[in-house]
Design goal:
Shape: globular
Largest sheet: 7 strands, mixed
Bound molecules: nicotinamide-adenine-dinucleotide
CATH class of the largest domain: Alpha Beta
CATH architecture of the largest domain: 3-Layer(aba) Sandwich
CATH topology of the largest domain: Aldehyde Dehydrogenase, Chain A, domain 1
Number of domains: 2
CATH superfamily of the largest domain: Aldehyde Dehydrogenase, Chain A, domain 1
Length: about 500
């Protein structure tokens, strides 16, 4: 029996009787079916979230903290089950999905505590009888629209701060990975009905309805640039607040003073984690010309030791891509580079030993330039294209020669280079000798086409609050500057 949705505290099957199928990308076998929500289901979830908002907004910080800590506790208690299901529908190695559950639980704990310190301010008033307050209040109903690559983590980065801020939420998981999110109906079942709702279905129908409805008040979206731009366009019709976390094309600069024993596995990790399907995957590598040859040779040797396979196998380093359409895009990028003179030093093909599943071998290329798609479009696969640079100014210019600005990486032991890099690179996160770490207390998000929003940290809570200024005169006196002019004596 497929997992039902969650609307207004009720577990709801598909009202239309329609379901869609979810396949294991490692075996291409059916995992389960999920309810195909209609626009009507979206509207029912919106009504339930609005009804629940009336009381949830007044829950005390203490009450919210208890309930959010309980979400974290339940995620930890069910990590094995959730991670196993996520591996089946999403393909990531089990160890990575267990990490995803741990990070998600930590995010709920973090915002449970941070919201206790959320505050507006009392500002100097313009009259002695006045109190002037700057208040922070929730938007109302937040639609959380989530992609497939980190479905639980990216849902948590939105839902935890949105609830902490006093909003109610409707979660729309990706149609590729709805199953583990639907299981979260049980993780949220101690919350008041309607505070969290989950509707599974397609972006163009149920997702779009959440965006255009007059009764959702903020859209928190993570996904591709193309969908983000469409959502921004639709939301602009109602001047609705959007929070957009979009794609990336992260650069990794390896300076001549980098320790190659660390830089080689570090670059491989940054490029190949989740088969390169991380928004901050390294997709372009710039290596100083003096070390380009040893770096590349060692990287090729290292990459060839990594094992491809299903994420459920503990021996697997790299799982499959999420689907055939996504694998075709990786192939197109590699094939175009190859046809235009790039050298494929490792990979560049589907693994012959894995007949089923959407696998692609980790691929190292040289002889690329910025006219190749693999150097300027998001590839979202296990590719490591390498270019050599001659001086650090050139490396920075190459890193910035891109529409995206999500993250960037540098390996160096030279503090001067570090300073120039973090001052000049246009990216929301700059990692130095420390690829792809996250910190709940630090804001995460992009610049340029990667979107300008921030999740996590204080900014991640602030994003779900809007500002209100209260002028309160407790004297209740008539003001001397009111009409009629000239007769009160004040306006002369
Ligand atoms: P996607 O844009 O195809 O889909 C994301 C979500 O949007 C899905 O739930 C989908 O159903 C929904 N959607 C699609 N059309 C919609 C519409 N018209 N209205 C409302 N909702 C709609 O992205 P994806 O393929 O699931 O995810 C991969 C992308 O996400 C990559 O580009 C990756 O870089 C990006 N990403 C970004 C971050 C970040 O934090 N910046 C993190 C992870 C992934």
């Amino acid at each position: 029996m497929p997992q039902p949705m969650l609307i207004g505290g009720e577990r709801v099957p598909s009202v239309t009787g329609e379901y869609f199928e979810v396949y294991d990308p490692a075996t291409e076998e059916l995992v389960d079916r999920a309810p195909m929500a209609s626009e009507d289901d979206a509207r029912r979830a919106i009504a339930a979230a609005n009804a629940a908002f009336r009381s949830w907004r007044h829950a005390t910080a203490h009450e919210r903290a208890e309930l959010l800590h309980e979400v974290a506790r339940k995620i930890r208690a069910r990590t094995d089950e959730l991670a196993a299901l996520l591996t089946r529908e999403g393909g990531k190695p089990l160890v990575e999905n267990r990490d995803e559950m741990g990070w998600s639980a930590a995010c709920f704990d973090y915002y449970a505590e941070l919201q206790r310190n959320a505050r507006g301010r009392v500002i100097p008033s313009v009259e002695p009888s006045q109190l002037a307050l700057v208040l922070k209040e929730p938007y109302g109903v937040v639609a959380a629209i989530v992609p497939w690559n980190y479905p639980i983590l990216l849902m948590s980065w939105k839902v935890a701060p949105a609830l902490a801020a006093g909003n109610t939420v409707i979660i729309k998981p990706s149609e590729m990975t709805p199953l583990s999110t639907l299981l979260f109906a049980e993780i949220f079942d101690h919350l008041p009905p309607g505070v969290v709702n989950i509707v599974s279905g397609y972006g163009a129908t149920v997702g779009r309805e959440l965006v255009v409805s007059r009764d959702t008040h903020m859209i928190a979206f993570t996904g591709s640039f193309a969908t983000g731009r469409e959502i921004a366009r639709l939301a602009a019709e109602r001047v609705k607040r959007t929070h957009l976390e979009l794609g990336g094309k992260d650069a990794f600069i390896v300076a001549e003073d980098a320790d190659l024993d660390v830089a080689v596995p570090g670059v491989a990790w940054a490029a190949l984690l989740n088969a390169g399907q991380v928004c901050t995957s390294t997709e372009r590598v710039y290596v100083h010309a003096s070390i380009a040859q040893p770096f590349t040779e060692r990287l090729v040797d290292y990459v060839k030791t990594l094992r491809l396979g299903p994420g459920s196998d503990p021996a697997t380093d790299i799982g499959p891509l999420i689907g055939e359409r996504y694998r075709r895009k990786v192939e197109e990028h590699v094939d175009e580079a190859r046809q235009r003179g790039a050298r494929i030093l490792a990979g560049g093909r589907r693994p012959p030993q894995l007949a089923r599943g959407f696998f692609y071998e980790p691929t190292v290329l040289t002889g690329v330039d910025h006219s190749h798609r693999i150097m300027h479009e998001e590839t979202f696969g296990p590719t490591i294209p390498i270019m050599a640079y001659r001086d650090f100014d050139e490396a920075i210019a190459l890193a910035n020669d891109c529409d995206y600005g999500l993250g960037a990486n540098l390996y160096t032991s030279d503090p001067k280079k570090v300073k120039q890099y973090y001052e000049e690179v246009k990216a929301g996160t700059c990692w130095v000798n420390d690829p792809l770490t996250d910190n709940d207390a630090g804001p995460f998000g992009g610049m340029k086409f990667s979107g300008g929003s921030r999740e996590l940290g204080e900014e991640g809570l602030e994003a779900f609050l809007e500002t209100k200024h209260v002028h309160w005169d407790f004297s209740q006196e008539r003001k001397p500057w009111w009409y009629p002019y000239g007769r009160t004596g004040a306006a002369e």
